């Protein structure tokens, strides 16, 4: 069993949903993935084994295999590994490789939603029948531009002279305080204060 192959079948493989045999195709592809290598190759379960997995008739399984080949989801594989495992030639089933690149290309099958499966024409549909335009979770809001607006005024260049006079050093103000906040505290709990006369020359006590 290959987790990689099963993950491709469950989440990526573009199995059409608008066909009468859609369920049979999905079951058969899943059964093949259960016998494939991590890269999707060397799957050679017998038809009887596929019938047991899928609960489908022999003819339905054989039709599903042909349809999956026609859809490009599987292809005939190299029999070398199978021949090393099964000595009797009359008991050797067909080897299939899963085309795990299907559904990962840049074509119409790329990036499809898990809840919006493909049809046999390769067109992706949402559950209400409308074409699905985005991936799951993708936002329809256009990306914001970070380019500066032409009408926005440019920040003024520094002139080298500060418009705020320096702290006098005699009050309780800090360099970052504006002139209006430069005071002398009159008590320890800082509830009473007077404006600093040095920073506010026009103020009298």
CATH architecture of the domain at 3-98: Orthogonal Bundle
Number of helices: 5
| Class from helix and strand fractions | mainly alpha
Please state the CA-atom Rg, rounded to the nearest Å.
37 Å
The chain-level mean pLDDT equals 75
Query: How many distinct beta strands?
Result: 4
CATH topology of the domain at 3-98: Arc Repressor Mutant, subunit A
What's the helical proportion of residues? Answer: 10-25%
For the sheet with most strands, the description reads: 2 strands, antiparallel
What does this entry look like structurally?
Helices cover 23% and strands 6% of the residues. Mean pLDDT is 75; it is low at 106-117 and 121-143. Among the domains are: 3-98, Arc Repressor Mutant, subunit A (Orthogonal Bundle); 166-205, no CATH class. It is mainly alpha-helical and 205 residues long. Helix 1 (3-11) runs antiparallel to helix 2 (22-33) and helix 2 packs across helix 4. It has five helices and four strands, in the order H-H-H-H-E-H-E-E-E. A hairpin with a 7-residue loop joins strand 3 (183-185) and strand 4. The protein has helices at residues 3-11, 22-33, 47-54, 58-70, 80-85; strands at 74-76, 96-98, 183-185, 193-195. The chain is rod-shaped, with a radius of gyration of 37 Å. The strands form two sheets. Strands 1-2 form a two-stranded antiparallel sheet.
